[in-house]
Amino acid sequence: MGPYFVGVLIPLMVTLLIWNTKKGKKRGLTVDVGGETGYAIRNHRFTSPVETAWEGVTTLAELFEYSCNKHTNKKLLGTRKLISREMETSGDGRSFEKLHLGDYEWQSYGQVFESVCNFASGLVQLGHQRGERAAIFADTREEWLIALQGCFRRNVTVVTIYASLGEEALCHSFNETEVTTVICGYKELKKLANISGQIDTIKRIICMDEEFQSDNSLVSVSSSWTITSFSDVERLGRENPVDPDLPLADDISVIMYTSGSTGLPKGVVMTHRNVLATVSAVMTIVPRLGSEDIYLAYLPLAHILELVAENLIAAIGCSIGYGSPLTLTDTSNKIKRGTKGDASMLRPTLMAAVPAILDRVRDGVHKKVDSTGGLAKTLFDLAYSRRLSAINGSWFGAWGLERLIWNFLVFRKIRAILGGRIRFILSGGAPLSAETQRFINICLGAPIGQGYGLTETCAGGTFSEYDDTSVGRVGPPLPCSFIKLVDWPEGGYLISDSPMPRGEIVVGGPNVTLGYFKNEEKTKEVYKVDEKGMRWFYTGDVGRFHADGCLEIIDRKKDIVKLQHGEYVSLGKVEAALIISPYVDSIMLHADSFHSYCVALVVASQAAVEEWASNYRVEYSDFLDLCQKEETVKEVYTSLIKAAKGARLEKFEIPAKIKLLSEAWTPESGLVTAALKIKREVVRKTFSDELAKLYSS
């Protein structure tokens, strides 16, 4: 046997051995647990739920201080310098703000910890009393994290509120928690001024921006509220230091108001122990986390996914660079032409994302490739198909020279969109489609850790492992959680089902929160404590366990509707299948028991539909006019049928009629949550006339 043959054979045998080992790897193991009878799985590496990964650390305040002392001189928080704001006018006369942003300016761990201590002391000097609650009501930025940790050093419970919440939800959140101090940005301060007469307990406002000082319109509220700048609070604390009043593990750290998809938001009550459990669990499963990593922060910090992520990143000595969804890439809406986006400037190695954002990255690349055409498109299609074959099991081309060639010729330019150095993406907040997961894996060359969790479980639940190349699953239980399936006979899901046990997903462990603030009835409905003292949260989601212990989300109890002739339709499942149409920006399926068919509201993707119109020379006055044209509706509907057939939907699951909408659904419009989930009931009420016409026509 010649040396060349040996040199080729041995690596191939090793590759095949590794592939076969991973294929049969057990990622979750069955476990005997208390409470309602079910089928329970634990993480394969931990026999009991993890509470903390740091010896002697039991609170988020202790963890932050420990990390700042350990990494004193390393960069922690970075924010881009704002050079200028400019207004640009589009061809149709609309004006848009564009930002000229400079380099990142950094604060070290030592400097940030000093700011945190000063802010904590400043709170006392302002008159914030022990036992009073403070709210953070702002977009994600470095002051948000400093304020959070400053409050923790005084054992102040923080109420987190989405910056995009409407007035009714805002008043409800502030009044229910009896907040006395609000920490916000200038934009949010103006929102508060508009509803000042409806908020009962606020005494102090700490504004992160200095602009409020020259705003005469705020004079009317300054008599009832003390408004102080963030920098002045830090200065007060620096000049009048106060000893910390550190919390205990079971003290309440956060009351997080969810921008729920139904009704008024509910406040989820989290202890330091709860959040620390998830932070500790995620730390054990993200590969090679280290102080050289850089994290791009742009998701709402009022969302549990981002709050856990930033506390974890700070705990291990990484750097956090702040951005926003509107300045993320070089072509983002608010980036001035010629200015680099946040990702290009920061060049992060880690980021978190919600599926809607990853879907937009995928669609953007597809549109760019399709519009370029020619050799570039041919090369992309060939490279993508070769890499897809490699990942799907044809291991030729998975390693070695071919992979390097495709990376250099094709994927290098795509990876540059997010800075070129991304090595791991955490996806959460909603199910990620298999198509998008594969696309991101191949084009960005980074594994996606798709997680499943809820605000009520501090984002802890399951998390797919970095070496798991399967799609459509959310991984095994995190080390902080047990996951149990319980029978849901009404929906036809049983743990005795073959070939996989199925049922409602129930999460147990130290990450399960205390319940809903001032809502004992709802708390008792979905939280249970078993005979061993473990808390369980009944999620309302339906899942099944694969043989290796990984969970797959297959339904949601509230999303299942029975049609007139008895067929059951899973709204979320159908929407996930249809949204892959390039013409769809958002979609909501509607069904009820008075009809034998479904209908759908479809928010059209403006770029894709206008490109189609241009190619087929369809004349129109504006985008609204284009969406109302019969040929446009027909084209979009045909693409939905194609997507439905590809997903093997039943005939009764496919919408019989659609209404094409031109206006995007945004958190500001109140039609989707901050995580871009549809507020089904709000959308139904808003478009009740359109839905009625679909059924009557």
Automatic annotation (TrEMBL):
<dbReference type="GO" id="GO:0005783">
    <property type="term" value="C:endoplasmic reticulum"/>
</dbReference>
<comment type="similarity">
    <text>Belongs to the ATP-dependent AMP-binding enzyme family.</text>
</comment>
<dbReference type="Pfam" id="PF00501">
    <property type="entry name" value="AMP-binding"/>
</dbReference>
<dbReference type="InterPro" id="IPR042099">
    <property type="entry name" value="ANL_N_sf"/>
</dbReference>
<dbReference type="InterPro" id="IPR020845">
    <property type="entry name" value="AMP-binding_CS"/>
</dbReference>
<dbReference type="InterPro" id="IPR000873">
    <property type="entry name" value="AMP-dep_synth/lig_dom"/>
</dbReference>
<comment type="pathway">
    <text>Phytoalexin biosynthesis; 3,4',5-trihydroxystilbene biosynthesis; 3,4',5-trihydroxystilbene from trans-4-coumarate: step 1/2.</text>
</comment>
<feature type="domain" description="AMP-dependent synthetase/ligase">
    <location>
        <begin position="100"/>
        <end position="517"/>
    </location>
</feature>
<keyword id="KW-0587">Phenylpropanoid metabolism</keyword>
<keyword id="KW-0067">ATP-binding</keyword>
<dbReference type="GO" id="GO:0009698">
    <property type="term" value="P:phenylpropanoid metabolic process"/>
</dbReference>
<protein>
    <recommendedName>
        <fullName>AMP-dependent synthetase/ligase domain-containing protein</fullName>
    </recommendedName>
</protein>
<dbReference type="GO" id="GO:0016020">
    <property type="term" value="C:membrane"/>
</dbReference>
<dbReference type="GO" id="GO:0004467">
    <property type="term" value="F:long-chain fatty acid-CoA ligase activity"/>
</dbReference>
<keyword id="KW-0547">Nucleotide-binding</keyword>
<keyword id="KW-0732">Signal</keyword>
<dbReference type="GO" id="GO:0005524">
    <property type="term" value="F:ATP binding"/>
</dbReference>
<keyword id="KW-0436">Ligase</keyword>
<feature type="signal peptide">
    <location>
        <begin position="1"/>
        <end position="24"/>
    </location>
</feature>
